[in-house]
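User: Teach me something about this protein's shape.
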Amino acid sequence: MKIVRLTENYIKDFEGRTVVAIGKFDGIHRGHEKLLGLLREYGRQGYVTCVFSFESSLNAFFSGEKASLLTTEAEKEETLRELGVDILANYPVNSKSVAVLPEDFVRKVLCSQLGAGIIISGPDCSFGARGAGDLALLEKMGAECDFRAICVEKVTETFEEYNKYTQENSGECAEADRGSLQGCQDYGMTQQDFPVEISSTYVRQEIVAGHMEHAAYLLGKPYSIEGTVVHGRKLGRTMSMPTVNIVPESDKLLPPFGVYFSKIYIGTAEYSGITNVGRKPTVNDTPAVTAETYIYDFDDDLYGENLKVELLKFARPEMKFESVEALKTQMAKDLEKGRRYAGI
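Assistant: First, the predicted structure itself:
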């Protein structure tokens, strides 16, 4: 997959007309997959497949707040590469780029820089200064710039689909610290709220609530954290429970601090495990957040290796224990529950 940065001076450096999917693509959920499926269909007809996205968070730029992403840039690139996308076009987010008039954005960026023959978007797409560009403008400018605009309707979730998860997991987060910014929420939607559009906002809501199995359904895959294994205090090893630590990227959205049943990928190999996301208050006095994982039936040295940890199900909230011995007792219980969950 070719990655291009759509700076003001970028000139198209590849051959062929493109089919361009435009969007933020945070999370790459089931709604995005519908749009990307159509993109690949046109790719099979000879178009160069291109995903237009943003180099950094628009919400963070306009709000001034820290980004909280479902998908880091590296994760987005990995997913789109696996889907067979030919080009990922990243648009810079700065005061000059967000002030470009919608008509100029279509002519220069989509048509001249990307060579769009087909542009695919959702019904609520917006672009250009103050987000004034929309699907109607794309359709209007299609004849002028020789491209076709296609709208892909939203994917929705029915009450029956949603209810499947609430029946299994209702109350799973009841003990979590509700005062925390990462605190859990109970399922609170009713049948009248459905159907619900599957969006990054909806997925984010479910992850912040600790509803990992429901989030996996919305995403089409379990929510994951990736990182390089770093040295910890090696306390787990002294308790015959060796663990590995990764530090999530600062802009990665994290679920409630607590213990999760997990699946770990090391290269092409996969293992079952149990992961604590948080600050480990019993043994730490620093604000650093880590994902600490015990991998079942595995004891190799992984320092410096890259790990992907899928968070499958919330098991319990993070707690501060009175002693390391009390922590060890609880960890043994957690590990046994995790084995049962994984069927090992």
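Now, about its shape. The longest helix spans residues 324-342. The radius of gyration is 22 Å. If you'd like, I can walk through any region in more detail.
User: That's plenty for now, thanks!
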